[in-house]
Each structure stands twice: as C-alpha cells, then as structure tokens.
Amino acid sequence: MCSIFGCLNYNNYLSSKEFIKSNNSMINRGPDYSEVKEYIIEDKILRFGFNRLSILDLSDNGNQPMLSSCQRYALIFNGEIYNHLELRKDEKLLNNTWKGTSDSETLINLFQHYDLEKILNKLEGMFAFAVFDIKEKKLFLARDRSG
C-alpha cells in the first residue's frame, strides 16, 4: 500500500525539511518511489507527499504527485480503481494521450471534464485521494464509500 501525505501550511508552521522527514517516515509503505511537491496559494503552502508501491503501472508514468494532461490538476492517490480501464473509454477521454496505464492517471484526467461528485459516482474501488486545482486554488479530498 502506498502512502499519501499532505499539509496546508499557514505561517510556515511545518518547514519543508520537516515535511520531507515526515513523508520519509512512511517510505516503508511505498519503497518504489518517493516525491514531495509544493504549491503556493497566496500566503499558504500546500505540500503533497507520496511514497509509491507499484502495482498496476510499474513504469515511472505512475509516479505521483501527478499532473493532469492539461497541467491544471495535481493528484496524490492511494488505492485501486477497479473500473479505470472502462473509464478510459469515456467519450470525453477518447482523445486523451495516455502516458501509462495507472488508475491514478485515469482519475486525474477525469477532473478535466467532470466535477468531483460525478467522478465519485463513476469510480468503483477502494481509494483515498487529494486533488489540487492549480488554476482555481481549490483542494478536493475524497475517499471511497466504505472508508
């Protein structure tokens, strides 16, 4: 199981060094790849941390945090979307250029066409994720219905 970690930081309460240390403390949950990204939101810093355990897409194309193909949405995701290959056949995604075969890439690109509620109704699986809309400066947090 991967690990996802995030922090919306006010007044630099948690330094970048401390955030990286915290993310690294979970590296045993995902030894295949580790990354931290920062996004500036006015006077705040949003940090996403991720430790990857490769399951569906073993290539670097499944690494996270992941950006949508339009570069507007950033994602950290843990879990599995069972119907992600079906979702790639959605008429709004047919012209998408896929970099890999990960369910994470399927999920982040759905945000280019649908709102969160519609996306959650389409997903079958177990998951938790955070998506940051870079343009609108909005953060979305979600998990599957089972929790």
Architecture overview:
It is a single chain. The strands form two sheets. A four-stranded antiparallel beta sheet has the order 4-5-6-7, with helices on one face. A three-stranded antiparallel beta sheet has the order 1-3-2, covered by helices on one side. The chain has one domain: 4-Layer Sandwich (Glutamine Phosphoribosylpyrophosphate, subunit 1, domain 1). A hairpin with a 2-residue loop joins β2 and β3. The relative contact order is 0.17. The chain is globular and about 45 Å long. The chain has 147 residues and is of the alpha+beta class. It has four helices and seven strands.
Question: Keyphrases for this structure?
Answer:
147 residues, Glutamine Phosphoribosylpyrophosphate, subunit 1, domain 1, alpha+beta
Please sum up the structure shown.
By secondary structure, the protein is an alpha+beta fold.
How would the blueprint of this fold be written?
Blueprint: E1 3-10, H1 16-24, E2 33-41, E3 44-52, E4 66-67, E5 73-81, H2 84-87, H3 103-110, H4 116-122, E6 125-133, E7 138-143
Antiparallel strand pairs: 1-3, 2-3, 4-5, 5-6, 6-7
